[in-house]
């Protein structure tokens, strides 16, 4: 028999097996399992499932969840197991555009059936990508194909590797985490309430996945940017995708790749892919809600003190927070909170500034940061961008043009990749900061009154949102709180429409859009699950 129980302990009790077992036993006796436990001679096995920190009410507590097995082995009763992958026989192949989590997990899913995945990635392998990323901060040099957004592993590889998701109805989260663990992620990701791998460890995990896919007969083509869909008309109403045309970003040469189907797993920053889809089938795109704002950075000790009510404990690690509120009928909320982390330059072009956050596995930097963003609906887009999209032949691209404009404005108000920034307290007083506090952002900062160039419908909601956040997190607004602009890549403003049952694009046969870039996920795990689902449907 299996039952699930949760016990509550103090931080210094977590590693005490006597206290843990005593609390588990006491909890079991409160349940219907008590009678069966007595009949089995009081014997049970417990399997740790999840840990969460509860810092409410001024007392830090740990909630520990266990699966308890009475009269059977915990190992034998385990429900989630690793998939069984087969060597591709080459009889069927599928092109996967993008090597982020959606693409990699789609490839692994195909290999369960022995179908050959052919992965095309516009960026570099992780080793060279790391060098390209370093050039952004040291030389203001943004490689448009190899950066924080593009390259092996996708946007999450060098920006934290957070694995927390609330998309628990989209797929098997536990199996996704087991696969990450199999390829080298710390076992703690299987039990932490907010698991993360760390940007210092995730690249090797991604490399291990690539080696397994190659070992099983898959292919990788790096520095290969898809520029066109190869289609034909079979007499039906929709064009049939037979493959893709791609350009080598080093040599400039083009090549055609053909297969039985194409999985489109590009990330949220691949604006050229939407232009490509718009050219092939404008009806395949639809505008969607997205969010833009700033990255807010505090000294880590300040956030820790707020969240742990002043009771700092090294064993608890850097404190996390998640905030959400409504301002003038739009959501204002935190995204990608990075405790003990860094703010990083995430532009994918040389004339734009985009910021993001990351943390190493230890989460031990002197700062904590999060995106604080405002919900932007299609009807909020300024008219000039709607006109621009209409002239381009696809009105649903208006949000993409607006996002690009915000990133260019940030570049105009910064200097190179040095980002425009302002003390949070000065932003609320509508004045330029005379100086700026120390920051983790290594590309540099330029003092700027963000109120003067961020559109008012965003800036005003941010200001109201910060004041509401401060009511629940006293001290969030302070002179040491720093706003760094712009945070624009929380999600894509465009969705590639697919059939709800088959996952095939509604306007193009044999094309299976998935992941963040297609508008169906937001984060590593949800993207991985969507890649698995798309490959499974295919």
Describe the protein in words.
- The chain has 538 residues and is an alpha/beta fold.
- The chain has 3 domains: 2-70; 93-285 and 493-537, FAD/NAD(P)-binding domain; 289-487, no CATH class.
- The protein has helices spanning 17-28, 33-39, 101-111, 126-139, 173-182, 202-215, 271-280, 300-307, 383-391, 398-412, 424-428, 456-472, 524-537; strands spanning 2-9, 44-54, 61-70, 93-97, 116-120, 219-221, 224-233, 239-248, 254-258, 261-264, 285-287, 290-299, 324-327, 330-338, 342-345, 355-358, 367-376, 419-423, 445-447, 482-487, 494-496, 508-509, 511-513.
- Strands 13-14-17-12-20-18-19 form a 7-stranded mixed beta sheet. Strands 6-5-4-10-23 form a 5-stranded parallel beta sheet, with helices on one face. Strands 7, 8, 9 and 22 form a 4-stranded mixed beta sheet that branches.
- Helix 3 (101-111) runs parallel beside helix 13 and helix 9 crosses helix 10.
- It is globular and about 70 Å long.
- It starts with a strand and ends with a helix.
Topology:
Blueprint: E1 2-9, H1 17-28, H2 33-39, E2 44-54, E3 61-70, E4 93-97, H3 101-111, E5 116-120, H4 126-139, H5 173-182, H6 202-215, E6 219-221, E7 224-233, E8 239-248, E9 254-258, E10 261-264, H7 271-280, E11 285-287, E12 290-299, H8 300-307, E13 324-327, E14 330-338, E15 342-345, E16 355-358, E17 367-376, H9 383-391, H10 398-412, E18 419-423, H11 424-428, E19 445-447, H12 456-472, E20 482-487, E21 494-496, E22 508-509, E23 511-513, H13 524-537
Helix pairs in contact: 3-13, 9-10
């Amino acid at each position: 028999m299996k039952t699930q129980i949760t016990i509550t302990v103090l931080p210094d009790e977590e590693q005490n097996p006597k206290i843990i077992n005593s609390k588990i036993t006491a909890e079991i006796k409160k349940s219907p399992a008590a009678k069966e436990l007595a009949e089995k001679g009081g014997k049970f096995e417990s399997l740790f499932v999840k840990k969460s920190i509860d810092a409410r009410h001024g007392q830090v507590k740990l909630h520990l969840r266990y699966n308890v097995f009475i009269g059977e082995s915990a190992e034998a009763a385990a429900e989630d197991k690793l998939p069984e992958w087969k060597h591709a026989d080459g009889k069927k192949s599928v092109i996967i555009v993008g090597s982020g989590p959606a693409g990699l997990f789609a490839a692994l899913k195909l290999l369960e059936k022995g179908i050959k995945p052919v992965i095309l990635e516009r960026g570099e392998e992780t080793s060279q990508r790391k060098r390209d990323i370093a050039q952004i901060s040291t030389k203001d040099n943004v490689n448009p194909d190899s950066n924080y957004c593009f390259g092996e592993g996708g946007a999450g590889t060098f920006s934290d590797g957070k694995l927390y998701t609330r998309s628990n109805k989209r797929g098997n989260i536990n199996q996704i985490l087991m696969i990450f663990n199999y390829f080298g992620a710390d076992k703690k990701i299987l039990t932490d309430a907010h698991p993360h791998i760390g940007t210092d460890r995730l690249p090797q995990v991604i490399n291990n996945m690539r080696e397994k896919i190659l070992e099983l007969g898959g292919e990788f083509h790096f520095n290969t940017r898809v520029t066109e869909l190869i289609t034909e008309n079979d007499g039906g109403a929709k064009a049939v995708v037979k493959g893709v045309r791609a350009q080598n970003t080093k040599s400039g040469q083009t090549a055609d790749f053909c297969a039985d189907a194409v999985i489109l797993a590009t990330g949220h920053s691949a604006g050229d892919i939407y232009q490509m889809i718009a050219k092939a089938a404008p009806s395949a795109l639809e505008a969607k809600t997205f969010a833009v704002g700033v990255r807010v950075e505090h000294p880590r000790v300040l956030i820790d003190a707020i969240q742990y009510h002043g009771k700092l404990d090294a064993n608890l690690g850097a404190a996390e927070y998640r905030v959400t509120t409504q301002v003038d009928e739009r959501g204002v909320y935190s995204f990608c909170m990075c405790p003990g982390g860094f703010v990083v330059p995430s532009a994918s072009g040389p004339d734009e500034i985009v910021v993001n956050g990351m943390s190493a596995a230890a989460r031990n930097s002197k700062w904590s940061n999060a995106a604080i963003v405002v919900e932007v609906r299609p009807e909020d887009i300024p008219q000039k961008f709607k006109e621009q999209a209409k002239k381009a032949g696809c009105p649903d691209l208006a949000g993409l043009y607006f996002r690009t404009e915000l990133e260019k404005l940030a570049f105009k108000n910064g200097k190179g990749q040095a980002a425009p920034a302002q003390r949070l307290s000065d932003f609320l007083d509508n004045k330029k900061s005379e100086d700026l506090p120390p920051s983790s952002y290594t590309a540099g900062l330029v003092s700027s009154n963000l109120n003067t160039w961020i559109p008012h419908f965003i800036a005003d909601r941010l200001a109201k949102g910060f004041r509401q956040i401060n009511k629940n997190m006293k001290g969030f607004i302070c002179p040491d709180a720093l706003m760094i602009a712009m945070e624009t890549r929380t999600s894509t403003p465009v969705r590639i429409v697919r059939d709800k049952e088959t996952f095939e694009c509604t306007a193009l046969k044999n094309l299976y859009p998935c992941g963040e870039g297609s508008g169906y996920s937001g984060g590593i795990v949800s993207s991985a699950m969507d890649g698995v689902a798309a490959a499974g449907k295919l």
